[in-house]
Amino acid sequence: MKTAAVANQCNRAKKSEMRNFIKDLKSCKTKAEAEKKLHQIISIIDKVSRDKVIHKNKAARDKSRLMTFVNTLSN
Fold first, then answer.
1. What is the pLDDT of residue 73?
2. Are the C-beta atoms of residues 69 and 26 closer than 8 Å to each other?
3. How far apart are CA 22 and CA 4, in angstroms?
């Protein structure tokens, strides 16, 4: 039970970090700024998915949506 509690805390922290980075990206106004952050966020999403905190399909869906968001931004 103690191990599960520690793992739960770590997983919550990773998921929270991921969400905060996504919110930070969505607050970007320029495409150049967003593209810089996008690579960092994709890396974080991949790590969280690899650790099985989120499902691989959710990771793919989030990355796709973020890329679409960045592509809709104007220069």
1. 92
2. yes
3. 27
pLDDT tens string 14-24: 999 999 999 99
Is 44 in contact with 59 (CB distance < 8 Å)? Answer: no
The domain tally of the chain equals 1
Alpha helices in 1-75 (DSSP H): 2-26, 31-50, 56-72
1-60 per-position pLDDT tens digit: 999 999 999 999 999 999 999 999 999 999 999 999 999 999 999 999 999 999 999 999
d(CA 69, CA 24): 13
CATH number at residue 54: 1.20.58.110
